[in-house]
Amino acid sequence: MVNGIERPLDVLNNAKGKEVIVQLKNNKQMVGTLLAFDIHINVVLDNAKEMVDGESKRSMGLTFLRGDTIIFISPASMAA
Description:
Elements: H1 8-15, E1 19-24, E2 29-37, E3 43-52, E4 55-65, E5 70-75, H2 76-79
Antiparallel strand pairs: 1-2, 1-5, 2-3, 3-4
């Protein structure tokens, strides 16, 4: 066990309430505050922004992302 992480979903649990980067299959990236997720990795982000080349392209606000469209999710603090 490292940093209280024993299972993959522990990473998401530790990231709740924090900013995350979500890479989607359509080559888009979303950045926002992780509010909730389920076992299918469906996620809800608050203050979500679509990112292109590291710059905010458009604000989406409260956003639901389907798990089958997600490639990876990373805590923003670790992805810099």
